[in-house]
Amino acid sequence: MSAAPQNPHAALLSCDNIQKSFGARTLFSALDLQVNHGQSLAILGESGTGKSTLLHILAGLEAPDSGEIRLSNINPWQIRQAERNRLRRQQVGLVFQAFYLLPHLTARQNIALPWLLDGRTPDNKRVDDLLERIDLSHRADAKPAELSGGEQQRVAIARALALNPGLVLADEPTGNLDPRHAEQVLDLLITQCTQEGNALVMVTHSQRAAARLDRQLWLEEGKLTDRALA
Ligand SMILES: Nc1ncnc2c1ncn2[C@@H]1O[C@H](COP(=O)(O)OP(=O)(O)O)[C@@H](O)[C@H]1O
Ligand SMILES: [Mg+2]
After folding, report:
1. Axis crossing angle, helix 149-161 with helix 107-117, rounded to the nearest 10
2. Which ligand 1 atom is at minimum distance from the Cα of 46?
3. Ligand 2 centre from 28 Cα, in Å?
4. Inside any domain, residue 1
5. Structural contact between residues 209 and 39, judged by C-beta atoms closer than 8 angstroms
6. How far apart are CA 220 and CA 206, in angstroms?
7. Which has the higher per-residue pLDDT, 229 or 180?
8. pLDDT, tens digit (0-9, with 9 covering 90-100), for 151-162
9. Which terminus of the chain is more exposed, N or C, with fewer CB under 10 A?
10. DSSP codes joined into one string, 92-113
11. Which atom, in ligand 1's list, is nearest to the CA of 219?
12. pLDDT surpassing 60 at residue 169
């Protein structure tokens, strides 16, 4: 295999020399990362090393103190907030450990939400298709409290995929699930991202889950290091 450097213009997402501190605590001192279209990667590391903060930076939710992030070759911190929000809505799907579904909306309405937030009419055919793909067509009108944790996370995944973002960011997506449901949710996330050609960046504590992705990166001492799993 050639170790030729990747073409930076081909990257969906690139981070160059990112620094980030909270008060006296430096999380990242010189962090670089490149994610290509359709690529999947796992981020591993101990609690408190800054994995969630890193995902927020990748999503354009949190600004780095210095260094540059580019999403589809756009620096989200060089455009106005409304444009940055639009960029994120259209290009990034987010999945969190705590699901974050809107409790008063049904599964179907939660999946349709990204269109509404983007000022568009929901594509009902796509919503139905997503419900089918997460195997919840029969629960489309249920509210989150009426669904199991695994089912709620499946809805959250469908919502993340709704507008076909190029990039899906998942922060310990199976952290609140028992092993069997965790496996189902992980399968779904990986399969759907692969089918839709989305890149996937997943923070996980599970080496087993990480092993299923293309690359494994460890966040240690403010830097990301490629390290294959044993
Ligand atoms: N908004 C914030 N303000 C101050 N400190 C923060 C903020 N967000 C995260 N931190 C601190 O940064 C460190 C890393 O947090 P986090 O990114 O959540 O780590 P991880 O996800 O790896 O557990 C923690 O010590 C946390 O207290
Ligand atoms: Mg975290």
Report:
1. 30
2. 22
3. 15
4. no
5. no
6. 16
7. 180
8. 999 999 999 999
9. N
10. EEEEETT----TTS-HHHHHHH
11. 22
12. yes
Give the CATH number of the domain where residue 108 resides. Answer: 3.40.50.300
On whether residue 2 sits in a domain, the answer given is no
**Average pLDDT for 14-37:** 96
- Convert the pLDDT of each residue in 117-126 to its tens digit: 999 999 999 9
Give me the pLDDT at residue 3, please: 47
- Backbone conformation region of residue 60, classed left if phi is above 0, alpha if psi is from -120 to 50, else beta: left
Report yes or no on 3 lying in a domain: no
Distance CA 185, CA 203 (A): 14
Q: What is the mean pLDDT of residues 19-39?
A: 95
Please name the residue ranges forming H helices in 118-178. Answer: 124-133, 149-161
In a domain, 194, yes or no: yes
Q: Find the domain containing 140 and state its range.
A: 8-226
Judged by phi (left if over 0) then psi (alpha if -120 to 50, else beta), residue 197 lies in left
Q: Which residue is associated with the tokens 């540059």? A: 68
How many domains does the structure of the chain reveal?
Answer: 1
End-to-end, the C-alpha distance of the chain in Å comes to: 20
Pocket test of ligand 1: the residue of 22, 56, 219, 223 to mutate, having most ligand atoms within 8 Å of its CB, is: 22
CA of 80 to the centre of ligand 2 (A): 28
**Is residue 65 predicted with pLDDT exceeding 60?**
yes
Pocket of ligand 1 (CB under 6 A): 22, 25, 27, 45, 47-53
Q: Whose CA is nearest to atom 9 of ligand 1?
A: 53
Does residue 7 surpass a pLDDT of 70? no
